[in-house]
Amino acid sequence: MNSELFTAITEDGSLSLVSGLYMQLYHNRIGAYTEALLNYSNVAMAVLRAVHGVELPSTINILDCCFGLGYNSLVFAQELPPNIDLNVTAIELDPGVMQFVPQVLNQACFAPLRAAGLSRDDAAAIGAFARTEVHCPGKNGTYTFEMVASCLRDYWRQHGDRHQGSQHLILHDPFSPKKMPELWTIDLFERYKAALVDGGMVLTYSSAPAVRGAFLELGFRVYRTPFLGGKWGGTLAVLGDYMEEPVANGELAEHITPLGALEYERLVKSSRVPFRDPGLKSEREDILAARIAEQEVFFAEVRAQRLANGERVGPAGKRRKRKDAKLALGQNQILATDSGTN
Ligand SMILES: C[S@@+](CC[C@H](N)C(=O)[O-])C[C@H]1O[C@@H](n2cnc3c(N)ncnc32)[C@H](O)[C@@H]1O
Fold first, then answer.
1. Fewer beta carbons below 10 Å: N end or C end of the chain?
2. What is the pTM of this model?
3. Is the CB of 175 under 6 A from ligand 1?
4. Regarding the domain with residue range 31-270, which homologous superfamily does it belong to in the CATH classification?
């Protein structure tokens, strides 16, 4: 992978990177640390408490898919209450990114984790992709980082089975669906589903209908996570109905809300058609072309249904704009990962 990287400071003062290859900021411009705290860690804790009660499991297993600078797992570890062991399996393609992990962990925002026991050597080992056991006397817990240098799809094709029904939380944080649709397919999310415990969850910054549509099609309950500069917030997908009551009652409104009317509207249109990649090895162009073909069928079926209902419809040739044709390739602007269409 071409790891042409530039450092950037986000609005909360925390370090991020810009990918020269994808022209994309690694984090929400509001803050790398703030995003990890508000869109990932706080939401995950709220779900864990709703599912398990105040007494959280004594061991928590998480998968960090696209570890990058590690904010999502590291902030979660920092926020974890005492007396819990944490196992993180972290998958990341680019060693060039990982070299910044010690610098990330040296920031003031990670002072509590350092005070709890994470040493300079631990930070260097994580950054070098080494399996690292962090003993945290300050938390009475051990945090194990299993670092995997791999393409996400290769990892799931080759090793996905080892996680069957064991994970409490999957942090899904690749570059946007526009840039890398192959990392946002329903087939990858189906592997995630098999890896989760009952009540387990996937968290991502994306609110794209193709992403939420995929989770819904797989039987997940889908909610919105806090707005952070973006128009739609991120996405929480939970296995089981544990969150229905607390979310409906507004008990967790600070962290999790139901999807709004406008969001549901986007989810009954052809934009909800997911990206598909059954063998986890299709070419990007083929995934995009297959989705456009599936959307045409979706569109034709909706039109036929409306005609059958006696509704007025436009001429068949006058199709919706094929925005997807512009997807991914060669767009020459830097996208922060909070864009409303991500
Ligand atoms: C948005 S950044 C992740 C930010 C990260 N979660 C954090 O907290 O700092 C996306 C990451 O995906 C990685 N990546 C890109 N393609 C990948 C692939 N095919 N498999 C695994 N990781 C990939 C990039 O190297 C980059 O670190």
1. N
2. 0.91
3. yes
4. Vaccinia Virus protein VP39 (3.40.50.150)
